[in-house]
Design a protein that fits this description.
α4 (about 90) links the parallel β2 and β3 (about 95-100). The chain folds into two domains: about 15-245, Type I PLP-dependent aspartate aminotransferase-like (Major domain) (Aspartate Aminotransferase, domain 2), CATH 3.40.640.10; about 245-365, Aspartate Aminotransferase, domain 1. About 50% of the residues are buried. The chain has an eight-stranded mixed beta sheet with strand order 1-9-8-5-4-2-3-13, with helices on both faces. With about 375 residues, it is α/β, with parallel strands linked by helices. The chain is about 35% helix and about 15% strand. The longest helix has 18 residues, at about 245-265. It binds pyridoxal-5'-phosphate. Pyridoxal-5'-phosphate binds near residues 56, 82 and 86. Pyridoxal-5'-phosphate binds near residues 82, 85, 158, 180 and 182.
Length: about 375
């Protein structure tokens, strides 16, 4: 029996051919043609004006804050219902995180966002907004609140490459957007990220900072400090091959979600993550809520049939790390965290294989 992982890498078949080209050219590292091609493919797919390939999405978020001049003592708002990679960058910059809860969309609540802006004594400089599990947040409303209050919007689209709202791709609504190519995302380069922005100068600056902030001289001249955050040409070759099958992966992820939904539709206590009107998520992970069953019981039952599952992200405001941070919450994400579960969503598996997930859940819930 093949183990069913949450979201394992799924190669297109072209990766090794492109990697071979990299080796033939000997542009193994640091840069080369495939880095440009990878960035171009992201721009073409998402409609982003400018793109920068990096070692991770976490690096991309860090660069976004650096470029925006956000530093010590500045306040940065963020979705509380997210993965730690969204918000570590705030700490890297010595800035102060303030967390905002979700609403029924599972994503950031525009209402609580307004409340936070109104009640905070300092003006927040930026908002890091996560499109959770590949589902679009209420982006139109959030963009307009940020514009009204002059708050930079950074979209954490690490999980939502390929998701769209009114036909516009996740990641291109804000001042910056970031996509992840980590091992468990919808596409992977084994590890990597891409930063996008409508602002060319910002991406140029991020590029400069991502390559040790070398001034344009033959010798090594430095006026400020940078990072070693750029993506290698080898990994970019994997990325080019992966981008070629993004549509197929989104299609299969959405089928998996529909399959679970259909097969579990008669169990009243189970509900699925919603999709906001006019949007299409990438359904990176199929996620559900139970009314009465303890999700950990389901995790055990799934382990018995060699299927991986996990609780939803533990909200940031409940983490020990952020025990002193301010938050604007109403219990929504805490409730979802307690009742929720991520199901195996591997695009390389058939519905027949996923049936054992369904059967194991049915056993526990009935
Ligand atoms: C995976 C993830 C990240 C971090 O991406 P890396 O490429 O691993 O740095 C950030 N935010 C969210 C919401 C994620 O799921």
């Amino acid at each position: 029996m093949k183990r069913l992982f949450l979201s394992p890498p799924h190669m297109s078949g072209k990766e090794q051919e492109y990697i071979a080209e990299v080796f033939e050219s000997n542009y193994i590292a640091p840069l080369g043609e495939f880095v440009n091609r990878f960035e171009d493919s992201i721009k073409e797919y998402t409609g982003a004006k400018n793109a920068l390939a990096l070692s991770s999405a976490t690096a991309g978020l860090h660069l976004a804050l650096r470029v925006l001049g956000i530093g010590r003592g500045d306040t940065v708002l963020a979705s509380t219902f997210t993965f730690i990679g969204s918000v570590n960058c705030i700490l890297y910059q010595g800035a102060i995180p303030v967390f905002i809860d979700s609403d029924e969309s599972w994503n950031l609540s525009p209402k609580l966002l307004k409340k936070a802006i109104k009640e905070l004594e300092v003006k927040p400089k930026a908002l890091i907004l996560t499109h959770l599990y590949g589902q679009m947040a209420k982006i139109e409303e959030i963009v307009s609140i940020c514009k009204e209050h002059n708050i930079y919007l950074i979209e954490d689209s690490a999980e939502s490459l390929g998701a769209s709202y009114k036909g516009k791709q996740s990641g291109v609504f804000g001042d910056f957007g970031v996509y992840s190519f980590n091992g468990n995302k919808i596409l992977t380069t084994s590890g990597g990220g891409v930063l996008v922005s409508p602002n060319k100068e910002w991406i140029e600056k991020a590029k400069f900072l991502s390559t040790q902030a070398k001034e344009p001289f033959l010798h090594y001249e430095h006026k400020e400090y940078g990072y070693n955050y750029r993506m290698s040409n080898v990994l970019a070759a994997i990325g080019v091959a992966q981008m070629e099958v993004l549509d197929k992966r989104v299609e299969r992820k959405r089928e998996i979600f529909e399959f679970y939904k259909e097969e579990l539709s008669d169990i009243d206590e189970i509900s699925f993550m919603p999709e906001i009107e006019n949007s299409q998520g990438n359904r990176w992970l199929s996620t559900i809520l139970f009314k009465k069953t303890d999700p950990l019981k389901v995790v055990e039952a799934l382990e018995e049939v060699d299927a991986e599952s996990r609780p939803l992200w533990k909200p940031m405001h409940l983490q020990e790390l952020f025990k002193d941070a301010k938050s604007f919450v109403d219990g929504t994400s805490e409730d979802y965290f307690k009742r929720g579960l991520c199901l195996p969503s591997p695009t390389s598996s058939s519905n027949r294989e996923l049936m054992r997930v369904v059967e194991a859940i049915r056993k526990v819930c009935q």
